[in-house]
């Protein structure tokens, strides 16, 4: 009987520690990224816009081609990772959600590791393929792109953070096309 009490004394605290450790992970957004070494020493910023004003959520210094950012998780939305490169900054959308997000920045870009980021990456690939395969005139191309964006918003309606990002980032193309019809 004493063996059982001794066992409980070890198991229950260990179980409690594991459960509270997992609980903290549920409430945290962790971004780990790799870049080319040419950006060592550069600051990478994570920001969003609130009421039209840019809000910096976190910064990290790129060291040995790596960076990491941790934030408390409160809701899912798409923010932007940015590296200031002078006149034209490097920008990478990233869906903030609980979990471990993986980012690759360089000749090829990738964001994934969580369900919303996997969807966001799929959208970015589909958009790049659409643009690469679009060989028609500018006016017709604008109409086709607006249709493509509307289809993507519909496709991702079950993932509001991604659909809202697409509307904010590319909704102007839909508005311009609708204005042209009038």
Structure, described:
- Helix 3 runs antiparallel to helix 4.
- The termini are far apart.
- The chain has a four-stranded mixed sheet.
- Strand 7 and strand 8 form a beta hairpin.
- The chain has helices at 2-26, 115-133, 138-155, 160-181, and strands at 28-34, 43-50, 53-61, 66-72, 77-83, 90-96, 99-104, 110-112.
- It is globular and about 45 Å long.
- The protein is 46% helix and 30% strand.
- With 182 residues, the protein is of the alpha+beta class.
- Mean pLDDT is 84; it is low at 14-24.
Annotation keywords:
four-stranded mixed beta sheet, four-stranded antiparallel beta sheet, 4 helices, single chain, 8 strands, 182 residues, alpha+beta
| Unreliable segments of 5+ consecutive residues | 14-24
Distance between the termini: 84 Å
Oligomer category: single chain
Number of strands: 8
Shape: globular
Approximate strand percentage: 25-35%
Sheet of most strands: 4 strands, mixed
Helix content: 40-55%
Class from helix and strand fractions: alpha+beta
Summarize the structure.
This protein is of the alpha+beta class and 182 residues long.
Write the layout of secondary structure elements.
Blueprint: H1 2-26, E1 28-34, E2 43-50, E3 53-61, E4 66-72, E5 77-83, E6 90-96, E7 99-104, E8 110-112, H2 115-133, H3 138-155, H4 160-181
Parallel strand pairs: 1-7
Antiparallel strand pairs: 1-4, 2-3, 2-5, 5-6, 7-8
Helix pairs in contact: 3-4
């Amino acid at each position: 009987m004493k063996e059982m009490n001794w066992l409980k004394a070890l198991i229950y605290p260990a179980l409690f520690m594991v459960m509270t450790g997992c609980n903290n992970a549920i409430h945290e957004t962790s971004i780990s990224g790799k870049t080319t070494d040419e950006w060592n020493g550069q600051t990478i910023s994570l920001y969003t816009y609130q009421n039209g004003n840019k809000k910096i959520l976190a910064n990290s210094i790129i060291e040995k081609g790596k960076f990491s950012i941790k934030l408390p998780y409160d809701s899912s939305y798409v923010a932007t990772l940015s590296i200031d490169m002078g006149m034209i900054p490097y920008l990478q959308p990233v869906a903030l959600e609980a979990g471990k997000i993986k980012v690759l920045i360089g000749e090829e870009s990738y964001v994934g590791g969580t369900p919303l980021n996997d969807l966001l990456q799929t959208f970015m690939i589909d958009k790049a393929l659409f643009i690469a395969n679009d060989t028609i005139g500018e006016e017709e191309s604008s109409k086709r792109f607006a249709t493509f964006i509307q289809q993507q918003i519909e496709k991702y309606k079950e993932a509001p953070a991604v659909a809202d990002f697409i509307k904010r980032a590319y909704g102007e193309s839909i508005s311009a096309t609708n204005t042209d019809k009038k």
